[in-house]
Amino acid sequence: MSTLEIRDLRVSIDAKEILNGIDLTVKAGEVHAIMGPNGSGKSTLSLTIMGHPRYTVLGGSVLLDGEDLLSIPVDQRARRGMFLAFQYPAAIPGVSVASFLRTAINARRVKESGEKNDLPIPQFRALLKEKMKLLEVDDSFLTRSVNDGFSGGEKKRLEMLQMHMFQPTFAVLDETDSGLDIDALKVVAEGIEALHKESAKTGILLITHYERILKYVRPDYVHVLVDGRIVRTGGSELAAELESKGYEFVREELYAGQR
Ligand code: ADP
Ligand code: MG
After folding, report:
1. Which of 25, 102, 155, 195 has a 20 to 30 Å separation from 255 between CA atoms?
2. Which of 59-63, 97-101, 156-160 is most confident?
3. Is the CB of residue 14 below 6 angstroms from any atom belonging to ligand 1?
4. Among 44-58, 174-188, 198-212, which stretch is predicted with the lowest mean pLDDT?
C-alpha cells in the first residue's frame, strides 16, 4: 500500500517563508482535505509537491513510499504516480483534447532509461471511451482545443478525465478559491467518487478554500492550514465547524496565548 508522507516541509517564495513545517501522511485510498484562508499557503504546498521552480524548499521532505520526491525531476514525479491538477489550467489553442491526452499519457509512460513506451492507439481509444462513459463526457469534447473557451466546469471535466486516464497513485487537486461554480465542484466530486468506486487505491489531497465541495466529497480527514502551518486536524465535522465559525476562530485559538 502506497504512502505519501510530508515531513516538516518548509518552503519560501522570494525569500519569504510561506510554509513553516508541514507534517502530513496520506495513505492509498484516503481523501484528505486541506482547508485554509486565502494566502495561507495551500497552493504553495501543492506546487511544491509537483516541483514548481518558483518555490524554494528550505527543509523537510515529501516521501512517496520512502523515496524523496523533492530530489527527483518533475517528470519523474509524474512517472512515479503523482498527479497535480492546476488551479488555473492553461489553454492550448490548436491542440485537441484527444491529442493532448495521448501526448500526456505517453509522456508518463516513458521508461526510466528514456525509452518510449507509447500506449498503442487502439488501447488508448478503448481506455478513453471507457473513462468518458464513466464520467459522462460527451464525444464532442475530444475535438475541442484544450481549455480554450472552456467554462469552469469543462476545465474540471478535462482535469477529471486526465486523472482517470492516468490512474495516479496520489492526486493533488488545488481548487480555485473563486469562480468555481457548483457544477464545477460537482464534476470534481463525482470524478473523485468514480475513481474510488473503480479502485479505492488513489490517495487524494483536496485543497480547498470553501467547505462547500465537502458536501459532495466526504474526506477521511480535514486539515486546517493557517499561516503556513497545519493547526487543526479532524474528520468531516471540522469542515462543518469551519463553515459555521469561519477561519477566524482557528486563528484566535492559535494566537490566544501570545497576545
Ligand atoms: P493560498 O493558495 O492558500 O491562497 P498561496 O500558497 O497562493 O496561498 O500563497 C501563500 C503566500 O505566498 C501568500 O502570502 C502570498 O501573498 C504569497 N505569494 C504567493 N505567490 C507569490 C509570489 N509570486 N511572490 C511573492 N509572494 C507570493
Ligand atoms: Mg491557492
Report:
1. 25
2. 59-63
3. yes
4. 174-188
Q: How far is the CA of 119 from the centre of ligand 2 (A)?
A: 34
Nearest to 211 by CA among 163, 187, 245: 245
Please check whether residue 61 is in contact with residue 148, taking contact to mean a CB–CB distance below 8 angstroms.
no
Closest ligand 1 atom number to CA of residue 47: 6
Has residue 40 got a pLDDT over 80? Answer: yes
CA dihedral (38, 225, 201, 124) in degrees, to 10, reads 20
Q: Which ligand is nearest to the CA of 48?
A: 1
Q: Which three cell numbers stand for residue 174?
A: 488545488
CB of 207 within 8 A of CB of 175?
yes
Q: How many angstroms separate the alpha carbon of residue 163 from the centre of ligand 2? A: 20
Q: Is 209 in the pocket of ligand 1 (CB under 6 A)?
A: no
The residue nearest atom 20 of ligand 1, judged by CA position, is: 13
CATH superfamily of 3-93+168-254: P-loop containing nucleotide triphosphate hydrolases (3.40.50.300)
The response to whether residue 119 sits with its C-beta less than 6 Å from ligand 1 reads no
Mean pLDDT value of segment 214-238: 91
For 94-140, what is each residue's pLDDT tens digit? 999 999 999 988 988 888 888 999 999 999 999 999 999 988 888 99
Q: What is the C-alpha to C-alpha distance for residues 50 and 40, in angstroms, rounded to an integer? A: 18
Distance from residue 12's CA to the centre of ligand 2 (Å) = 15
